[in-house]
Sequence to fold (218 residues):
Amino acid sequence: MPHGAPAVKTRATETAYDAIETMIATLKLEPNQPIVESELIQITGLGRTPIREALMQLVASGLIEQQPRRGLRVSEIRIAEHLTLIETRRVLERLIAVASAKRATRGQRDALLNCARDMVESARQGDLAGYMDADQALDRVNHEACRNPYAVQAIVPMIIQCRRFWYAFQHEGDLERGAACHLMLAEGIFNGDATAASDGADALMDSLAAFTHRVIEI
Fold:
């Protein structure tokens, strides 16, 4: 029994992290909003320890900030710095795409293509929730397929920041263009074509950069 306890604790922390991250990404926890542990415990139904551990992970990823004498707050959306974030994310997306094109299993290739097609269909219907769900599913498969946990660990906080940015300014976004870029990426990986997969990653980052420029110019 004692040997199983750490695993349970880890799963609880992961559940807490996913729940809080989703609330931040979808703006249910707004930028600069103070973090109240008791409220998160009530919302998630989890204990104080996994909530605290998840919050510390979110501090490390930059989504939550620890301020002297003011406690924890959700970090701001820094529009001016977002292009720099995308520039950095581009390098990691290329690395992950190329690795997945080389290393993905047949099942992972099929799953990536299905996720991308779901994104295309959701974009056609204007279904933002469906689009985001398929986007997250595609990321999960892609990150498993690349077999590079260091790249994944580095890129995940950037993806969350981009997702939050999208939710904040979605009126400027182009779902169909985003879906087409994801499909290009997925098809490259599906076909084991590292160059095409890298080009798909580049197209996706170009799309996010164009979206950011539109927001800056509002």
User: Anything to note?
Assistant: The CA atoms of residues 75 and 164 lie 11 Å apart. The chain has two domains: 2-74, 80-216.
